[in-house]
Amino acid sequence: MNSELIAKGKEIESQVANHIRNLRTELESVQLRLKEEQDAAQRASAMGDRSENAEWQIANDNIARYTVSIMSLVNTLDTYKKFSASYTPTGKVMVGSTLKVVDRRHNSTLYIKIYPAGLGNAKIGAISTATPLGSAVLGKTAGTEVIVKAPLGDIPYYIEEVL
């Protein structure tokens, strides 16, 4: 079974790598749009009074928005980079662990990998520590049952394996 968990962990990591590539592509796109807006603001500024220059005001608002987006994307990419080099298995669930958990309410098996808060993508099994399931399993070991509070009632999960 451990080889199955290793394979699932690698599959999640591969999908996260695709997610990171998409984030980098998005960063490049936003950086390009920022440059275009800076050029537009410079052209509009050359036309005179900025207080009555709607083109300059719109470009300036867009520059602020793109700058915030760039900072957020860079921060996310930096966090992924730091995270990827920091995991050592201990047997306890921690950031970087890959788990096989059983959802006892729905009788289904999930393979998940734990990521720091703000990272991850639940659709591909990359669970953030900020999620209810992620926070519930932290520090636990294989053979432990945890209860996750959900809007439609508590969901019991059994941690079958930890890598």
From TrEMBL:
Residues 89-162 form the Transcription elongation factor GreA/GreB C-terminal domain. InterPro entries: GreA/GreB_C_sf, Tscrpt_elong_fac_GreA/B_C, Tscrpt_elong_fac_GreA/B_fam, Tscrpt_elong_fac_GreA/B_N_sf. Signal peptide: none annotated. Pfam families: GreA_GreB. Transmembrane segments: none annotated. The keyword Protein biosynthesis applies. GO terms for molecular function: DNA binding; RNA polymerase binding; translation elongation factor activity. Residues 20-47 form a coiled coil. GO terms for biological process: DNA-templated transcription elongation; regulation of DNA-templated transcription elongation. It comes from the Bacteria. Keywords: Coiled coil, Elongation factor, Protein biosynthesis. This is Transcription elongation factor GreB. It comes from Pseudoflavonifractor capillosus ATCC 29799.
